[in-house]
């Protein structure tokens, strides 16, 4: 896999037309993420469009519901060519297990558990969410719960990826948002590292959105990122 294939770009836009404009502008991007904004607006039409263009699809719906409902959502995703699909680890062991069983014999999607959103920091974990664990330990426990339940990997910040790689092993997929080159704003991301640092720590894929899509020149931003990750 070339370094650029490890970068997943979110289609965080409100319309199919906006998504097509980004796809046309960045033809070298092979892996795109569809999140709540675009999926609620466009539905499976956007998945079909990405498949027609032979793109890989990360469907980031962050399922969080009772086991039967989560399993139904996963089963639907198996019929739409989705490569990666997210659900929250905090849905619990029964929901995670039901999700893994719903994929069944299908080769895809690979399931990723959200451990702790990259927009949250240690203070919010302790004081707002009332979680009495240190942040790295909480993320690790969520990843282990997912792994024990048959989930393929986790979404974590680059700051936790080295520990998760060491403890969860080489085959557990680790996908990192919260990635910021030195020349981009962090925005609402709280636990960030640079693309090169995230890959060196053991991430399989990086999700990088606004540093590219909100740049004044998205093509130049993409090329600069690819050069940076290729330097490792
Ligand atoms: O913990 C998480 C889980 C998902 N995301 C998603 O990743 C992208 C990040 O976009 P940027 O513009 O690079 O911040 C976005 O679609 C989030 O919904 C995340 O950031 N953190």
Automatic annotation (TrEMBL):
Substrate binds at residues 12, 33, 60-69, 118, 180, 189, 209-210. Keywords: Decarboxylase, Lyase, Pyrimidine biosynthesis. InterPro entries: Aldolase_TIM, OMPdecase, OMPdecase_AS, OMPdecase_bac, OMPdeCOase_dom, RibuloseP-bd_barrel. The active site is at residue 62. CDD domains: OMP_decarboxylase_like (cd04725). Coiled coil: none annotated. Homodimer. Catalyzes the decarboxylation of orotidine 5'-monophosphate (OMP) to uridine 5'-monophosphate (UMP). This is Orotidine 5'-phosphate decarboxylase. It comes from Spirulina subsalsa FACHB-351.
């Amino acid at each position: 896999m070339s370094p650029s294939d490890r970068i997943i770009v979110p289609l965080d836009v409100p319309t199919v037309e906006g998504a097509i404009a980004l796809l046309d502008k960045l033809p070298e991007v092979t892996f795109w993420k569809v999140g709540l904004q675009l999926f609620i607006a466009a539905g499976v039409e956007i998945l079909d469009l990405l498949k027609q263009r032979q793109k890989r699809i990360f469907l980031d719906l962050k399922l969080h519901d009772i086991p039967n409902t989560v399993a139904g959502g996963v089963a639907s995703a198996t019929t739409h060519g989705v490569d990666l699909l997210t659900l929250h680890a905090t849905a619990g062991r029964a929901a995670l297990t039901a999700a893994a069983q719903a994929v069944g014999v299908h080769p895809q999607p690979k399931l990723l558990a959200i451990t702790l959103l990259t927009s949250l920091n240690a203070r919010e974990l302790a004081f707002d969410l009332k979680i009495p664990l240190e942040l790295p330990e909480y993320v690790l426990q969520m990843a282990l719960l997912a792994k024990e339940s048959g989930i393929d990997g986790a979404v974590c910040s680059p700051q936790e990826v080295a520990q998760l790689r060491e403890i969860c092993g080489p085959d557990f997929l680790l996908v990192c948002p919260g990635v910021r080159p030195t020349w981009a704003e962090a925005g609402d991301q709280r636990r960030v590292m640079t693309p090169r640092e995230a890959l060196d720590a053991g991430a399989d894929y990086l999700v990088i959105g606004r540093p590219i899509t909100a740049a004044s020149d998205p093509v130049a931003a993409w090329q600069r990122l690819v050069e940076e990750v290729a330097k490792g």
